[in-house]
Design brief:
eleven-stranded antiparallel sheet; 6 helices
Length: 294
Amino acid sequence: METIYQDFAPKGIQFFYVYKPLAHPELHNYVRPVSLDERLMHVTEAKRRLGSGITWLADTMANDFHKALVQFPNAEVILDPEGRVVMRRPWSRPAQLREDLAAIVGPVESPTTIADLDLPEQPPLPTAQKGVVPRVPLPEGALPMLVEVVEQTSTPYYVKLRAEGAPELWDTGKGEMYLGFHLDPLYRVHWNNEVDPVEWRISAPDGVVVTPSQGIGADPDAPADADPREFIVEVDGTPGAVVDVQVQYFACDDALTFCIPVRQNYQVTLVRDTSHSWTIRTDADGNWGRPSPQ
């Protein structure tokens, strides 16, 4: 510890938040970004919500930092001035972190408390009405599958695809798969139920059968809502196979300045996406939980 203290002392301590993979899409309505620009939008939103002045860093879209250090959603790491790992913990423990820092660089006379910070935490972004369209039951033990956008276009991915399956699907290539088309609240859009509903189609390679291979979303009486459009399909294929998902929808912003048709493409690989954690379900306000489908 003496050597470490001597290394740290002349340079002090710097704190950083690191934006890594979004661990639990749907919590507070946030969904997984598909580009570095969108990750930086999430960083801006985190700054607004938390009110903290700590510097933020964003991991690469390949999740290099996440893979190199600790693949946990709430990890904490102490690096020395040369970038060597002094301590890493899979889950943040503030009291233990304070003890670690005191042991490494020495104690402080007047420790800062949470109350001293007086952070102006803000609520999540509002959305259009939720709780309009019934939720679809997830396959038992469902976890995220690997989903990638086919191409980045000038039109944002206002809708994000979540594809999830139980272990037998990514182990054998056979089983149920959940497809969920979730609106991205950072773009402040909603489903306009006075135009055509969302439509999707799956193209599978030889040897892979997806049933059904196409579908149309709900068409509720409410003029607008922000509920996901969800479907369950049966897959009969092989592990690691790639299927193409095309979705067509109208993107309509909450300020009512535009309502445009959008067609976008995703690829779903029948493997477990290890960069993302377990599935959650939220209530109509985006709060944590696994409510039973209506």
